[in-house]
Amino acid sequence: MRVAVVTIFPEMFDALTEYGVTRRAFEKNIIEIKYFNPRDFTDDIHNSIDDRPYGGGPGMVMSPEPLKNAIVEAKQWINGKVKVIYLSPQGKLMKQSRIKALSEEENLIFLAGRYEGIDERIILNYVDYELSIGDYIVSGGELPAMVVLDAIIRYKPGVLGNDESVHQESFSEGIFDSPNYTRPEIFENIQVPKVLLSGDHKKIKDWRRAQAITKTKNTRPDLVRGHNNYQLS
Ligand code: SAM
């Protein structure tokens, strides 16, 4: 999968490409990433990428021309089928099923906004999906793009040590994962639940599922509502 990122801060993506599980995906060329900085696609001496909003108001807006030029160049590099995603608080809320669908796309372009956002005409003419990481505002689209890309990478075969992991995590079945314990058996007077030491795989599976359902119901009843199938096996 080729991933192009249109951003004025490409260095921020080192957090993704240089560390941990995600680093492995880039080292193994499972994901190829390339940055397209709108500043490199300007034609004035100040390399301006923003301007005042028509109609007045606070802050600046990212100008359409450098963004368009960066997207066109990114599409040339991708050289194939691609979806353009604008990270935006006004987008559809990210959830695991959307991440899975995106992981099945051939290639992606992420558009990271800054300032008060980007000129609406870029959204109208060039963006396939607007995606939000939550109902709050961060300062730029780079962190949201990294969050989404990290989650996508976890679906790529060969990235996680055990490819089953991604299917056992919270949300993969619409509910949370079960609680985890490792050694020691007793920590600060709390004993690991006996069932996990029993060696009885059926019992362990049932216990884990019951725990996951209970925690999800208590913390996020909205996830469980409307599902009748969250019963013990
Ligand atoms: N004025 C915009 C609004 O109220 O909708 C917010 C602009 S925000 C300061 C700058 C950029 O950060 C946005 O263009 C977007 O790319 C990114 N951003 C901020 N919050 C986000 C969120 N919750 N999800 C995805 N992207 C976000």
Q: What does this protein structure show overall?
A:
The chain is an alpha/beta fold and 233 residues long. It contains 9 helices and 9 strands. The chain has helices spanning 14-17, 20-27, 64-78, 96-103, 120-126, 142-153, 165-168, 201-219, 221-224, and strands at 2-6, 32-36, 50-51, 61-62, 83-93, 107-112, 129-132, 186-187, 190-191. The strands form 3 sheets. It has a 5-stranded parallel beta sheet, with helices on both faces. The two termini are 37 Å apart. The mean pLDDT is 94. The structure holds S-adenosylmethionine. S-adenosylmethionine is lined by residues 87-90, 112-114, 116-118, 132-134, 136-141, 144. S-adenosylmethionine binds at residues 87-90, 112-114, 116-118, 132-134, 136-141, 144.
Short description:
It contains 9 helices and 9 strands. It is of the alpha/beta class. It has 2 domains: 152 residues, Alpha/beta knot (3-Layer(aba) Sandwich), CATH 3.40.1280; 54 residues, Trp Operon Repressor, Chain A (Orthogonal Bundle).
CATH architecture of the largest domain: 3-Layer(aba) Sandwich
Side-by-side strand order of the widest sheet: 2-1-6-5-7
What is the number of beta strands?
Answer: 9
Kindly report how far apart the N and C termini lie: 37 Å
**Class by SSE composition:** alpha/beta
Rg, nearest Å? 22 Å
Helix content: 25-40%
Q: Spell the H/E element sequence.
A: EHHEEEHEHEHEHHEEHH
Bound heterogens, unique: S-adenosylmethionine
Give the domain tally.
2
Question: What share of the residues does DSSP label as strand, in percent?
Answer: 15-25%
CATH topology of the largest domain: Alpha/beta knot
Give the full name of the CATH homologous superfamily of the largest domain. SPOUT methyltransferase, trefoil knot domain
Low-confidence stretches: none
Biggest sheet descriptor: 5 strands, parallel
Shape: elongated
Q: Which CATH class of the largest domain?
A: Alpha Beta
Mean pLDDT: 94
- The total of helices stands at 9
